[in-house]
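ARCHIVE CARD
Drawer: 12
Card no.: 0347
Subject: one protein chain, sequence and derived structure
Cross-reference: see card 0346
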Amino acid sequence: MWEEAEKFLLKDKYLSPLVKKCGSCTIKKSMKFRYFVDLLESIANQQLSGKAASTIFGRVRDLCDGDINPEIILKLSEEKLRKAGLSFAKIRYIKDLASRTKSGELDLKKLYKLTDEEVIGKLIVVKGIGRWTAEMFLMFSLARPDIFPVDDLGVKKGFEKVTGKMFDKEKSFKFAHKNWAPYRTVASWYLWRSLEN
């Protein structure tokens, strides 16, 4: 899926060694029916380590008998969701997502037709979804090729490690645009990989 991006990034002195070492980017588009689950998982995982996040999300999935959908989320009691490990704030957020999705105010199945900025605009009206969560959705659910999440800690650390430059949101954004557009999603994926050893 990302052959063009990899060919392009192989010409970049910073990312070329990572492309050779890490192989192909593994980001794949989600099916439309998964969008709700993807967003709910993003909210549940905010500010948690990988292990804690997957444990809590696993418990929420169990509460839904494996079928996470807006109706079930709206029916689940706050008490059950608290026991699963979600904070009161996150419970409010996932209920808000479920209620906007169920009412049709947020039509998740049509998001793939919108531009990146339009998708962000639609998602950030949901409580608990900020620009970062919306960008993760663009990258990992819609597989949009040119997203550079400047608020992501991993991207910041990876950028500093790979380029040897101090991360500055504005300057680093311009640097990424100049060197890695139109494949900044894939570049970000390699920046994350750079932190793995």
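Annotation on reverse: The mean pLDDT is 95. DSSP finds twelve helices and no strands in the chain.
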